[in-house]
Amino acid sequence: MKFKKPNIFIIGPSQSGKTTLAKELASDLGFIQYSASNAIKELRNLHKLFKNKIENREEITKISLETLQSDDKAISRKIHETIADGGFVIDGIRNPTDFVCNFNSSKDFVVLLDGRSEDYFEMSGIQTIEKYLGFLITNEIFKGEIYGKNNINELKDKLCSK
Predict the structure, then answer these.
(1) Domain-embedded: residue 24
(2) Beta sheet of 146-147, edge-to-edge order
(3) Main-chain dihedrals φ then ψ at residue 11, nearest 5 degrees
(4) What is the mean pLDDT of residues 28-47?
(5) Per-residue DSSP letters for 57-72?
(6) What is the pLDDT of residues 97-109, one digit of tens each?
């Protein structure tokens, strides 16, 4: 039986360094970096629109809402199809449903990044994810550790020793 690598979820508000850290961890650990926004682009075949890094949050939010209105589980399923075999560093998940549907509490890791955001909906989603993690820890469903920028090397050491 082949050992499945864990996935690492990096959660935090915009401009908190999620993608930068995801790329660094993926490179250091031999994992694949995957931004949740890619699920939306892949579902809507939007790679051409965003080819020149003209990503603006309002447009992605609008497209996400349109996608969810047509199929409320589409983005979660696309993320799941992509990361199911493990070995991914996933950044950009702000929707608690996408996190809950894809986080495996028995093998995956979480990195929470601090930062400020003026976007109420983004912050409420991140806070819901934090509360969900608190529930998993309190009920001993998730026995792992939640990492941050200050102890990210412990996560690297843990994964490199496997």
Answers:
(1) yes
(2) 32-35, 88-91, 8-11, 109-112, 146-147
(3) -115, 135
(4) 80
(5) HHHHHHHHHHHHHH-T
(6) 888 889 998 889 9
Cα separation of 56 and 41, whole Å? 13
CATH number of the CATH domain containing 19? 3.40.50
Strand partners of residue 91: 10, 35
pLDDT at 56 over 80: no
Mean pLDDT across 56-72: 67
Bridge pairing between strands 146-147 and 109-112: parallel
Q: Return the amino acid letter for 15.
A: Q
Task: For 5-47, give the DSSP string.
Answer: PP-EEEE--TTSSHHHHHHHHHHHHT-EEEEHHHHHHHHTT-T
Residue 43 lies inside a defined structural domain of this protein: yes
CA distance 46 to 54: 12
In a domain, 2, yes or no: no
- What residue type is assigned to position 110 of the chain? V
User: Pick from 123, 82, 80: which is nearest to 103 by CA?
Assistant: 80
